[in-house]
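User: quick one
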Amino acid sequence: DAGVTQSPTHLIKTRGQQVTLRCSPKSGHDTVSWYQQALGQGPQFIFQYYEEEERQRGNFPDRFSGHQFPNYSSELNVNALLLGDSALYLCASSVGNTGELFFGEGSRLTVL
Amino acid sequence: QKEVEQNSGPLSVPEGAIASLNCTYSDRGSQSFFWYRQYSGKSPELIMFIYSNGDKEDGRFTAQLNKASQYVSLLIRDSQPSDSATYLCAVKRSNTGKLIFGQGTTLQVKP
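Assistant: Done. Structure below.
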């Protein structure tokens, strides 16, 4: 049983560019949450997707957007990248909005 | 005031000792409480959750919740070097999927 898979694992972008990160949830899970984790900090909630809709959103600007597909997989898009967007982006899946999350290994984004 | 506060540590304990990790939260509407463990360079993994006041035990781990004091703790008995990691406290309201994490406490268990 595959767990949560994320791609790419590492990527480097320059300021102003756009990035798309992808996530496939654990089998049987229908909800995907995205988190940003800066070095030495706890994960910060970006948003959560359920039934292809954004159900909850954290304090992130509109540059951060997402999508969930009928097969429950999800994408995180970040436009107009800033240096401060450099972080580990974690995808977590769950059944419904329980806090029992299963995390992927993350996508480490570096913005130069 | 941060929504979930933890002492960043590091907390250093000798092998075999009890490690006590603490967390306070500000939202009195929080209903569910979680402890995640994150090894260096890895993603967080759930180790325990607690919903009711009191203690909940799972092997060497005990979670303690006091909603009146808005306080959650995690005790690790017979600490092992393999327990060395960052422990993240997380809380959520029952009607929302927004799980709020603290900054984590780094635990070092010395042989």
